[in-house]
């Protein structure tokens, strides 16, 4: 295992009756003037959203509402507007009610309130993020642990050039996270697919790590992946299965629980995703659907035993001790078929790209800065992107009549 230091201060409230408690929880956390940043999915939750707003006001809190515009990614322009509103209204607590994009916007606003410079200047030097307003989160879908993590990112467009800036600071860890499956409102197959794929992607970046002697977290990664696949299947059969939805939300949240510390992260999948987001402005989960099959093929070539173990322990495939390469290929095929069966983009053309974009994508991968303390292991990004383009072309041909 790797050395690590871990502190988290998030109070997590899980359950179907948590909406009425929010106001009192924020008041205890020191909030009195609250910016309620709401995504469109929050208002779709119907009466529950009204219960939350009543809870805030009945607890003596002054509330300023702001709607987060619908977007694939958190925009710096929205953060700037949120900071202006917070300063005008003397806000001292930021509450995100929505999806992961909404949570990242709230983190940007909370950090931006404590500086005297433009927020993108701050994100260009994330070591300067040493203070922020206290944060709370009410999830309306699984968010990959954003509700408990110190990570965030923003997308900005300057002089017609789109850039992705990431940051990590313990001051961005929310003080409060409310996880209520009823807040999901009206889930659809795409939301379920995105959530399950996100869990798989996060677990795989930890699973394909060079860290040794980490049997406990190996087992946890395998459990999270099995859970994601099983819960995706249950919700595919019944979108109204609240127990399964709650399980998916909690499984997603566990990535920021600290239980998976002590192992290096394979950041290659994350860097590729940032490049796709930067070039195409697609959602991170759309980027993941495009990249993951090729990334898995590449990993099967450089980590045969690990891929074979994944096939056996997670997918229930037979392990061929005489030919582990064959076992690895079966795992890649199984997962590739699963990803391609999701209602997400599988061709570059679906996000506005084409095969000629590989050089530009390579430049953007190289431009993605690693987070403080992170390592980038030797990865042939060109090989992965070339494989991705090949699979994209094959998928496109398969869809033509």
Topology summary:
Layout: E1 11-14, H1 22-28, E2 33-38, H2 40-43, H3 47-58, E3 62-67, H4 76-89, E4 93-98, H5 100-112, H6 119-124, E5 135-139, E6 151-158, E7 161-168, E8 176-179, H7 189-207, H8 215-237, H9 242-253, H10 268-280, H11 284-302, H12 304-313, H13 324-340, H14 358-367, H15 381-399
Helix pairs in contact: 1-3, 4-5, 7-8, 7-9, 7-11, 8-9, 10-11, 10-14, 11-12, 11-13, 11-15, 12-13, 14-15
* CATH superfamily placement of the largest domain: Dehydroquinate synthase-like - alpha domain
| Strands in their spatial order, largest beta sheet | 1-8-5-4-2-3
Mean pLDDT rating: 89
Strand content: 5-15%
Poorly predicted regions are none
User: Which descriptor suits the 3D outline?
Assistant: globular
Largest sheet: 6 strands, parallel
Question: Judging by the overall fold, what is the CATH architecture of the largest domain?
Answer: Up-down Bundle
Please give the radius of gyration in angstroms.
21 Å
The percentage helix is 40-55%
SSE pattern, N- to C-terminal:
EHEHHEHEHHEEEEHHHHHHHHH
The number of E-state strands comes to: 8
H/I helix tally: 15
Notes on the structure:
This protein has 401 residues and is α/β, with parallel strands linked by helices. It folds into 2 domains: 11-184, 3-Layer(aba) Sandwich (Rossmann fold); 189-399, Dehydroquinate synthase-like - alpha domain (Dehydroquinate synthase-like, alpha domain). The protein has helices at residues 22-28, 40-43, 47-58, 76-89, 100-112, 119-124, 189-207, 215-237, 242-253, 268-280, 284-302, 304-313, 324-340, 358-367, 381-399, and strands at residues 11-14, 33-38, 62-67, 93-98, 135-139, 151-158, 161-168, 176-179. The strands form 2 sheets. Strands 1-8-5-4-2-3 form a 6-stranded parallel sheet, with helices on both faces. A two-stranded antiparallel ribbon has the order 6-7. A hairpin with a 2-residue loop joins strand 6 and strand 7 (161-168). Helix 10 crosses helix 14. The longest helix has 23 residues, at 215-237. The protein is globular. The mean pLDDT is 89.
């Amino acid at each position: 295992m790797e050395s690590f230091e871990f502190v988290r201060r998030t109070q997590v409230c899980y359950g179907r009756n948590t909406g009425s408690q929010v106001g009192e929880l924020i008041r205890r956390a020191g909030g009195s003037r609250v910016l309620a940043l709401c995504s469109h999915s929050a208002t779709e939750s119907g009466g529950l959203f009204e219960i939350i707003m009543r809870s805030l006001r009945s607890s003596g809190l002054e509330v300023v509402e702001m709607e987060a515009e619908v977007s694939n990614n958190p925009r710096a322009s929205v953060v700037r507007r949120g900071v202006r509103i917070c300063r005008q209204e003397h806000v001292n607590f930021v509450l995100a009610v929505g999806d992961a994009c909404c949570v990242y916007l709230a983190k940007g606003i909370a950090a931006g309130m404590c500086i005297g410079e433009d927020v993108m200047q701050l994100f260009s030097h994330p070591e300067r993020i040493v203070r922020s307003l206290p944060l709370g989160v009410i999830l309306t879908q699984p968010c990959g642990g954003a509700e408990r993590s110190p990570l965030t990112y923003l997308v900005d467009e300057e002089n017609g050039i789109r850039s992705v800036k990431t940051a990590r600071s313990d001051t961005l860890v929310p003080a409060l996270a409310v996880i209520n499956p009823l807040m999901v409102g009206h889930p659809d197959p795409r939301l379920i697919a995105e959530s399950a794929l996100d869990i798989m992607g996060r677990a795989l970046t930890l699973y394909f790590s060079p860290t040794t002697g980490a049997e406990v977290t190996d087992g946890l990664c395998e459990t999270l992946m099995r859970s994601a696949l099983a819960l995706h299947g249950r919700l595919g059969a019944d979108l109204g299965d609240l127990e399964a939805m709650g399980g998916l939300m909690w499984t997603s949240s566990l990535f920021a629980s600290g239980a998976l510390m002590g192992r290096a992260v394979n950041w290659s999948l994350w860097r590729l995703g940032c490049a796709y987001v930067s070039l195409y402005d697609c959602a991170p989960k759309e980027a993941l659907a495009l990249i993951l099959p090729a990334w898995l093929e590449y990993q099967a070539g450089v980590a045969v035993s690990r891929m074979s173990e994944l096939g056996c322990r997670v997918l229930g495939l037979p392990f061929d001790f005489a030919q582990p390469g064959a076992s690895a290929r079966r795992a890649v095929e199984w997962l590739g078929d699963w990803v391609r069966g999701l209602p997400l983009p599988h061709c570059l053309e679906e996000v506005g790209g084409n095969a000629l974009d590989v050089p530009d994508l390579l430049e953007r991968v190289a431009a993605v800065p690693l987070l403080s303390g992170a390592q980038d292991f030797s990865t042939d990004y060109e090989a992965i992107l070339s494989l991705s383009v090949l699979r994209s072309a094959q998928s496109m041909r398969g869809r033509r009549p």
